[in-house]
Design goal:
Length: about 750
C-alpha cells in the first residue's frame, strides 16, 4: 500500500537522527581518542538538557542541541513529545527488562512494520512466519550520468505501506472470512504489490467487472501502488487519478494525494543527478504540477489526515523550490517559545538545508551562526559571520547575550557592558550557568580573580545531581586559574571523566574504577610548571584522591631517577604502590632499572585522562608502553576530534621565583634525556656489562629486547629513537645468547627486533 507523508527519495530528510549519543567510544585500537571531561559535540546527558538544564553551552554543539538551548533561552520549553524525539530513551534510562538479548532482539524485529505485515499474513494463511516471503524495503534506482549509470538505494516501500496493508487485511478478513476466495485474491494482489519493493516484480491482474465490488476497488488501488513501487510513475499517476474519480472506492479520498506523490517521484527520476554533497535534483516543472494538486487538497476542509499529509508533502516540495523560505519557516516554528507539533520534521529540514548551505535570516539561524567556532569546528557552521555583540545591543535578548559573552575576547572593549548585563541573569534562568561561566572567564582575563573565584565557587556549590559533572569540570577548569595557594590548586585538580576513550583507559580497565584523573590543564601544569619538590607535596596531599597521589608519586619518582635526585627518590619511594615500593626500595640503581623494564606503564609525566601508570605492569599490545615523548613536557594534548590543542599555561601565582626556576631547570634537563626504551635499555645494558654475575642479568637483557619490540613507536623508521631501539635490541639479544645461552630467558627470546 502507498501511504506515506514523505517521498522515499527524501527518507534521509525525514529520518535524520535528532539526538546522538553523547560520544562514541572506540573499543578497538589503535584509533583511541582522549578521555572526555567536557563533551564538545553534545551535552553530557541529552535527557537532562532537554528539560532545560543547559549547563555550560559549548559552541561546538550540533544544531539539534543548539535548537533546544535556544528554545529555553527565549523562555520556552520542550513538550514531552519534543523531549522524547530529541533525547529518545537509552538502555540506561529504560525500565529494567529481564529478558535476554535474543528475546529483546526478536521483539524489536517483530515490531517492525514489515514484519507486522508478514505476521498478519502468515496468521491468515495459517502458515509458519518463516515461510512468509522476506521483503526488503529498499530499492536501487538507476540514474543516467555523463559517465554511465548510477544506482542510488532509496526507501521504496515505507513503513506506512505495511501498516496500512495490515489494517486492510484485518478489515477484509472480518468482512469476507478467513478462508474466502475474495480474501485469497486480495492477498495475491498485495503480495504482487510488495514484490516491487526491492526489484521489478509483478503487477496485480485486473479483475473482471463481476468481481466482488470492494475487492475490485482494492485491486485498482493495488495496481496503482504496484506501478508506483515499480517506478512506472505515469502508470501510477493514471491509476491513482482513476481511484480518485471512483467515489465508491474506500481509497477515493487518498487518490489525488497519491497521484501527487507519484508526480514528486517522477520529478526526482527525471532530473539530472546531483553532484556529491549537493541536494538531490528534481524536475521543477513536475514539482510545480504536484504542488498545484496538493494545494487543492490542503485547501479542502475534509479528512484532517489527508490535509496534514498534503501539507507535509508541500513542505517537502518547498525544500526544493524555495529552500530559503522553507528554512525560515521551520526555524521560526521550532525556535519557540511555543511547542512545535512538527518538531521532528522541522528539525530534520533545518539540519538538511543548513548542511547544504542554505542561508536564513531567522533569528535562530543567525544565533547559531554567531556562536564562535572552536579551533576544531564541529558546530556545522555554514552561515555568514555575525557580529553577536551588535545583535545583542539591537535585540537585548538572552540568547544574544549568551552569544556575545561566548564571543567576547579577553579585555574586549565591551566586556564591562556585557558583564553588567550578565550579572542581572537570575539563578533560575536556563542561561545562568553559561552566563556565569563566561563572566568568570572574562573577570579572570581582567585580573579580577577574587570575584571570579567567588562566583565560580558559588556555581560549583550549587550544582546538584549526577548529571552536572561536565559543568563541574568546566567550572573547575576556570577556578583553578584563580588558585592563590598550592592546596587550592590541588583542590581543583581532580576531574571526573565522563567517557573513557584513551588507550590507557582500556589498558588499566579504568572504566570500572574511580573516574577521577587529570585534565589536560593540570597534567601540563605538573609536567611543565611545578618543581619536583611540589610533586612530593602532591603525592602526600589529602586534596588528591589516593589513586592520583599514586600517579604523581610514580611519575615524580621516575623524574627524580632521570635527574639523579637521590633525595627525591628516597622521599617518593615509600609512596609508590606497595609491590613497586618493595621491589625498588630507595634504589637509584639496578633494582629501579629492572622495575622500569618490568613495568611498561611507568612514565615520567602525567597524562590527559587515564594514566598509563594505573596499570603499570600490563604490556599494552598497541605499543602504549614506556614513552617516546619528552620527559619534562609530557605528551601532546588533543581535543575530542584528536586535533592538537594549544593552551596557555596556568597562572600558578603561588609559585615563588625559585620554584619557577627549579621547574624550568628540571624540565630542560629531563627533555635532554633519551626516550624511554632507549634510556632504560642502555641503563640496564651498561649495568649488566659491568656486572656479569648479576642474578637478574638474563631477565634484564630479555626485557630490553621485549621493550624494543613493544615500546612506543614513532611511525618513522628513520627516526632516531627507532634506529637506537634496533641497535639496542640486537646488542642485548647478542649478549644474552652469548653469555647466558642456557637460561630460560634466552629460550624465551629467540629473536631481536
Amino acid at each position: 500500500m502507498v501511504k506515506q507523508k514523505k517521498m522515499a527519495v527524501a527518507v534521509a530528510i525525514a529520518t535524520l537522527a535528532v539526538a546522538v549519543p553523547l560520544i562514541v567510544v572506540i573499543a578497538c585500537g589503535p584509533d583511541f581518542g582522549p578521555d572526555v571531561f567536557v563533551p564538545a559535540p553534545h551535552p553530557q546527558n541529552p535527557d537532562v538538557f532537554a528539560k532545560g538544564h543547559l549547563g555550560v553551552l559549548q559552541p561546538s554543539y550540533w544544531r539539534a542541541d543548539k535548537v533546544v538551548a535556544y528554545r529555553y533561552l527565549v523562555g520556552g520549553k520542550l513538550s514531552d513529545a519534543e523531549r522524547a524525539a530529541y533525547a529518545p530513551a537509552t538502555e540506561a534510562t529504560k525500565p529494567y527488562n529481564p529478558t535476554t538479548w535474543q528475546q529483546q532482539y526478536d521483539a524489536q524485529q517483530a515490531a517492525l512494520p514489515v514484519n507486522q505485515w508478514r505476521a498478519a499474513r502468515a496468521a491468515v494463511l495459517k502458515v509458519d512466519l518463516k515461510g512468509s516471503p522476506e521483503i526488503s524495503q529498499d530499492r536501487s534506482l538507476g540514474t543516467k550520468t555523463n559517465d554511465g549509470f548510477e544506482l542510488d538505494p532509496v526507501l521504496n516501500c515505507p513503513n506506512d505501506a505495511f501498516l496500512t496493508a495490515k489494517a486492510t487485511l484485518e478489515s477484509r478478513t472480518k468482512q469476507w472470512g478467513q478462508g474466502s476466495p475474495a480474501l485469497a485474491e486480495w492477498l495475491r494482489g498485495q503480495d504482487a504489490v510488495f514484490s516491487n519493493c526491492s526489484a521489478s516484480g509483478q503487477i496485480p491482474s485486473p479483475l473482471p467487472a463481476n468481481a466482488v465490488p470492494l475487492l475490485r476497488m482494492d485491486r485498482e488501488y493495488q495496481i496503482a501502488a504496484a506501478k508506483f513501487y515499480a517506478t512506472d510513475y505515469d502508470g501510477a499517476i493514471s491509476g491513482f487519478e482513476a481511484v480518485a474519480n471512483d467515489a465508491a472506492s474506500p481509497w477515493h479520498p487518498w487518490g489525488q494525494y497519491l497521484a501527487a506523490r507519484a508526480e514528486v517521484r517522477k520529478a526526482a527520476k527525471a532530473a539530472s543527478p546531483a553532484q556529491y554533497g549537493d541536494m538531490a535534483a528534481f524536475d521543477k516543472p513536475l514539482l510545480e504540477q504536484a504542488k498545484t494538486r496538493l494545494e487543492k487538497i490542503a485547501a479542502n476542509p475534509g479528512d484532517p489526515r489527508i490535509k496534514h499529509a498534503a501539507e507535509a508533502e508541500l513542505s517537502f516540495i518547498q525544500v526544493r523550490l524555495d529552500p530559503k523560505q522553507r528554512l525560515n519557516n521551520v526555524a521560526t516554528a521550532i525556535a519557540g517559545p511555543a511547542p512545535d507539533p512538527d518538531f521532528v520534521q522541522h528539525l530534520a529540514d533545518l539540519r538538511f538545508l543548513a548542511d547544504h548551505g542554505v542561508q536564513s535570516d531567522a533569528d535562530l539561524m543567525l544565533w547559531m551562526d554567531a556562536l564562535p567556532a572552536p579551533s576544531s569546528d564541529t558546530s556545522e557552521k555554514t552561515g555568514p559571520k555575525i557580529d553577536s555583540l551588535a545583535e545583542w545591543r539591537t535585540r537585548q535578548t538572552t540568547p544574544w547575550l549568551v552569544a556575545a559573552l561566548m564571543s567576547a575576547k579577553p579585555n574586549g572593549a565591551a566586556n564591562a557592558e556585557l558583564l553588567r548585563a550578565a550579572a542581572k541573569i537570575p539563578a533560575s534562568s536556563p542561561a545562568y550557568t553559561s552566563v556565569s561561566y563566561q563572566r568568570v572567564r572574562l573577570m579572570i582575563a581582567a585580573g579580577n580573580t577574587a570575584e571570579a573565584r567567588k562566583l565560580a565557587t558559588s556555581v560549583i556549590d550549587g550544582l546538584k545531581g549526577d548529571d552536572t559533572t561536565a559543568t563541574r569540570n568546566a567550572m573547575l577548569g576556570l577556578r583553578i586559574q584563580t588558585a592563590t595557594s598550592f592546596p587550592e590548586f590541588l583542590d581543583d585538580t581532580p576531574r571526573s571523566v565522563l567517557n573513557w576513550q584513551s588507550q590507557a583507559a582500556y589498558a588499566s580497565n579504568a572504566m570500572k574504577s574511580s573516574p577521577f584523573t587529570f585534565d589536560v590543564d593540570t597534567a601540563r601544569a605538573f609536567n611543565r610548571q611545578l618543581p619536583l619538590s611540589l610533586w612530593v607535596e602532591a603525592a602526600k596531599a589529602k586534596e588528591l584522591p589516593e589513586r592520583l597521589r599514586g600517579a604523581v608519586a610514580m611519575a615524580g619518582w621516575l623524574r627524580a631517577q632521570g635527574l639523579n635526585d637521590e633525595a627525591t627518590v628516597k622521599a617518593l619511594a615509600p609512596l609508590l604502590p606497595s609491590a613497586l615500593s618493595q621491589a625498588v626500595g630507595d634504589s637509584m640503581g639496578f633494582p629501579a632499572t629492572l622495575a622500569l623494564l618490568r613495568n611498561p606503564g611507568l612514565r615520567p609525566y602525567l597524562e590527559q585522562g587515564a594514566q598509563r601508570s594505573f596499570a603499570p605492569g600490563s604490556l599494552e599490545e598497541f605499543r602504549d608502553n614506556w614513552w617516546c615523548e619528552k620527559w619534562g613536557s609530557g605528551p601532546r594534548a588533543f581535543d575530542q576530534q584528536y586535533n592538537p590543542l594549544t593552551l596557555p599555561p596556568l597562572p600558578l601565582v603561588f609559585l615563588t621565583a625559585p620554584q619557577r626556576k627549579a621547574a624550568a631547570d628540571e624540565q630542560a634537563k629531563l627533555n635532554s634525556l633519551s626516550p624511554g626504551v632507549v634510556w632504560v635499555g642502555h641503563r640496564a645494558l651498561d649495568y649488566v656489562k659491568a656486572h656479569p654475575d648479576e642474578k637478574d642479568a638474563p631477565e634484564a637483557l630479555a626485557l630490553i629486547v621485549r621493550a624494543t619490540h613493544y615500546g612506543c613507536y614513532t611511525g618513522d623508521e628513520k627516526a632516531t629513537p627507532t634506529i637506537e631501539q634496533k641497535t639496542l635490541s640486537k646488542e642485548a639479544f647478542t649478549l644474552l645468547h652469548r653469555r647466558y645461552p642456557k637460561t630460560s630467558w634466552a629460550a624465551k627470546t629467540p629473536y631481536y627486533y
